[in-house]
């Protein structure tokens, strides 16, 4: 069989101030057809898994373009259309094919396209026709649309948050598509909209038990795969929200009954699933009162993984005002400050202005006397699924007892090696502030005495009721409609 694989992915925060242009893809992670490296990349899970299966399955594997951008604001029309058309051209060149395997996100929004993935899958289906198996791996923070379901045969979302199971889900996807192509199974889908949007942290209850429950159901009574699509609240599009997706083998009734059952369970658990965030001073008070350290504070509102700039200073400024020392913070996106640090060199002491560059939700820049402690060109952090994540040229500076990682390639904290590669010893810190929502957890929980989630100001604020939605469909608990007309 001939199998085509490729990827086009990003997560779009429609409230973020910075557009996502072509350079956001090509400069961060872009591999033209046939040039994917000999390691798994972000959203390249299906390609990597297909490489491992190809010989055993007797496949001729054709690798198309793989590209992804750091989450950010709305993708420009030029960027989406040019990259989409490149991937589709790769597919046409590969014809005829029996299976198409794609690595997508599920929450890409571009100028003129509220549902990029639905648009892409529709065009893929038009090219290959009805008899070819089309499957895609998704991030669970997706906007699951009718088009995505209609133009694919199988969709599989990561089950874990943080996303530690990218490769496992890729294998699940390609094995199901292989069985479908061999006519061993006939996947039929059922989707239920839960009328809400909630994160499901699988590192704590009840999220942990939810994942274990759905995995126990898969492979029994004709159930092929189950995805809990959490949704992405800072994407203002009609399909945003938490949904249950179930595939059964040839039995739509079985799929629908289970989807309905799981949706009811999710709704019943929504209060316990929803994360409650601390204000800055409450979080700092709790961290400083802890008998030891480090206590990790997650700056969720400035999480680049949710499309924020990653340069906000609200928590840093308050720590400096309170005289908190023996702390670390990162990554703080500031290419200008990094350039200055490299010019000054390790050991230099100089006045620096850091952060607060992009807009009001970044806060004001912070000024202070700094010691340049370490420098590294092209720092690579360990990311989701062990994939390398580019952080760019990076500097470790000390400002009044707070060690700060400054970087040039916007990205969230996922692994402690963001700090340790710059010789920042986290074990001796009272507080470690990470620009991340949840992906930091798998690594940082190994060194943390406690983890606190902070709701500071920012363009990825968890205070969704402060956002002005124009396109979402209600009800969408816990987001409150602004007027009765919204319910029509």
Description of the structure:
This protein is of the alpha/beta class and 488 residues long. It has 14 helices and 17 strands. The protein has helices at 22-26, 45-57, 77-94, 116-128, 146-150, 166-181, 207-217, 252-268, 270-273, 280-289, 314-321, 335-344, 417-420, 441-444, and strands spanning 2-9, 30-31, 60-68, 99-103, 133-138, 154-157, 187-193, 223-229, 243-249, 295-299, 327-333, 349-354, 366-382, 388-399, 402-407, 431-434, 450-454. The protein has an eight-stranded mixed beta sheet, sandwiched between helices. Strand 5, helix 5 and strand 6 (154-157) form a beta-alpha-beta unit. Helix 2 crosses helix 6 and helix 3 runs parallel beside helix 4. The protein starts with a strand and ends in a 34-residue tail after the last strand.
Secondary structure topology:
Elements: E1 2-9, H1 22-26, E2 30-31, H2 45-57, E3 60-68, H3 77-94, E4 99-103, H4 116-128, E5 133-138, H5 146-150, E6 154-157, H6 166-181, E7 187-193, H7 207-217, E8 223-229, E9 243-249, H8 252-268, H9 270-273, H10 280-289, E10 295-299, H11 314-321, E11 327-333, H12 335-344, E12 349-354, E13 366-382, E14 388-399, E15 402-407, H13 417-420, E16 431-434, H14 441-444, E17 450-454
Parallel strand pairs: 1-3, 1-4, 4-5, 5-6, 10-16, 10-17, 11-15, 11-16
Antiparallel strand pairs: 2-3, 7-9, 8-9, 12-13, 13-14, 14-15
